[in-house]
Specification:
Length: 279
Amino acid sequence: MVVHAHPDDEAISTGGILARYGKEGIRTVLVTCTDGSAGDGPGGVKPGEPGHDPDAVAAMRREELERSCRVLGVQHLELLGFTDSGMMGWAQNDAPGSFWSTPVPEAAAGLVRLFEQYQPEVVVTYDANGFYGHPDHIQAHRITMEAIERTGIPNKLYFTAVPKSWFADLGNRLKELGIEFPVPEVSPEDAAVPAEDRASGPEEWGTPDEDVTTVVDVASAVDEKYDSLVAHSSQSDNIFFLRMGREAFGEIMTREAFVRVIDDTSAPVPEDDLFAGLR
């Protein structure tokens, strides 16, 4: 079971494992927590701009998510139905029904039911910072931890990760291709840090390599992973990896990395399989 915040989040960090393990006959479940209504509207129109209809955006992104799941072979798509909270500091953070503003015990109730229904052996979600500070990613982490505490499920829990060395390698390869590496939005926490002291480039981003416990080879599913991103075409302005093109993507995005946080199997690390110790 993979717990993500928005439609399209499933593609880049977990599309490979969803497709690979589905091909191996393992039941795959994607939980998407929000409706994605704070995403781009037609023509790239942003929330709050004329022509942005949150309900229409949510409906469009639901269709794209279902298409992505078909591409990845996801067997079960579960929607928690919360309203997209937007980026940290946006007005949508505090809107009634937003994922971010919902108390964690209440927000976790639906996920608790899904844990009890599916009994997942392996769960994957974000770390406590939501990887880069997005409020809905942070909340997805929080409700996952709450559901684990309340159910004692799963056997293994992983946080998505990108090793620092991978960011550096990616930055170098993109320079060769003449593609500018995107600079992420500055979180409120980082905004309090003088600009000269902030992480300055791809080599500074990501998870320390020594913290990464698990690297899964997803080369056999890299086409599905790319096509999953293509399925989310309405968000193409925000999906940097589509700019790489299929060939470069297929060269670079053949591995997915994780930090193992919970394990009752005693499987040794480093490992190359999320199901090590379970089969």
